[in-house]
Amino acid sequence: MDPDDAMDNIIEALELDPDCIEAFEFLGNLGDSMPISLAFYEKGVALGDKQFGGKFLEENKGHFWGMHETRSYMRCLQMTAEILGLMGKSEENIATYEKMIELNPSDNQGVRDQLGISLLMVGDLKKFKHYDQLFDFEDGTSSNFNRALAQYKNEGASPETKKLMQIAINSNGYVVAKLNSKKDVVSAPSSYVLGSKDEATGYAFFAQDLWRNTKGALVWAKGFKKGK
Predict the structure, then answer these.
(1) What does the pLDDT read at residue 228?
(2) Alpha-helix residue ranges (DSSP H) falling in the chain
(3) Which of 1, 199, 207, 222 is disulfide-compatible with 6, CB 3.0–4.6 A?
(4) Reported CATH class of domain 1-110
(5) How far apart are CA 178 and CA 195, in angstroms?
(6) How confident is the model at residue 2 (pLDDT cuts 50, 70, 90)?
(7) Taking CA 79 as the corner, what is the angle to CA 101 and CA 218, rounded to the nearest 5 degrees?
(8) Which pTM does this prediction carry?
(9) Which residues, 6 or more positions from 69, have their beta carbon under 8 angstroms from its beta carbon?
(10) Domain boundaries in the chain?
């Protein structure tokens, strides 16, 4: 919708139900700054904590994405975590992602890769390994690059680290160039094809600072070529 029409609908929804989580989700989507959007998403989270706590939580924990009524709450949690991460609030960011996985262990929203980046950012390799094992060493571009960097942080450019990095390069050959770009990646695409430049942009949006702050990692990564 046109933003003005969308706002009219949001206002009408809140007049009917002041505790409408979806309305606060949409207000967050329309926010013109991270702090404003965060305030609305956090309101949606607070409402969800209240509405879906207690007995509801006991009976439905683990299935929160499979239920229509909890999806806006889960989306508010995801956007809250993303913004907290972008604002450098790592502890709150990690706690929110972990809460999401506890509520929905299947992680239909795919936040495990962002959680992995956040854990590597704070240097929690033990917890990173826990979640990597929890999702059975998933074979995706973000997981592969996160795993290679975790190994690099743990033991440098060892044979095992080189093996993991080659796997990552083979999953997407554009990522290293994106990570090495002098320009900051300022946005992530809403969709992408696996192995594409857009996928590489999406990963770099969340992980560029992590790689930059890991001494020697970017220079080391430039030595790999796809298929070698």
Answers:
(1) 65
(2) 3-16, 21-30, 34-51, 54-60, 71-86, 90-103, 112-121, 125-134, 141-155, 159-171, 175-180, 197-212, 217-221
(3) 1
(4) mainly alpha
(5) 13
(6) confident
(7) 85
(8) 0.91
(9) 52
(10) 1-110, 112-228
